[in-house]
Specification:
single chain, 179 residues, alpha/beta, eight-stranded mixed β-sheet, 8 strands
Length: 179
Amino acid sequence: MDTVYGIGCAPDSEAAVERIFAAKARPLHKPLSLHFGAVDELLAFAPGNALAARAAAAFLPGPLTLIVARPARVGAFVTRGLPTLGLRVPAHALAQAILLRCGPLAATSANLSGRPAFIGGGAVTDLPDADVFVDDGPTPLGAESTVIDVSGPQPRIVREGAIERAMLEEVLGPIGEAG
């Protein structure tokens, strides 16, 4: 199951990343995340991070974004200069196939900034301009992913979404609030 539709590009192309920001009218301080087709690919971007490994084993593929220390191989333009990077593996079969074929993509939700995220089906409105658009019908969850920061010693919830705090605490232990 997955949450909402996304828009993505090659993470090594600063021009492509800037196109996403322009197409969405996205505030320039909000970073993109990397989306992967498989959990092992994601874990290669968080080597030695035990919290990320435990969360990934329990919840990925699925509606969870893990925030980890940004590896040097990912340009600061993707994270807008932040020292951290969000990582996701969607549970949607078509999205996984695309990501496995293309490699990781720098991505965010497919909506104009400040508008509701596109959940598929129905009228296609308020979407950013993109070269390719795929609508595979309504998403089963229709909610945004949960975002958890595992870049430090204690995990912190940044945004609660489809995966609830109690579920995360069963796997990761006590969780703090993002500050």
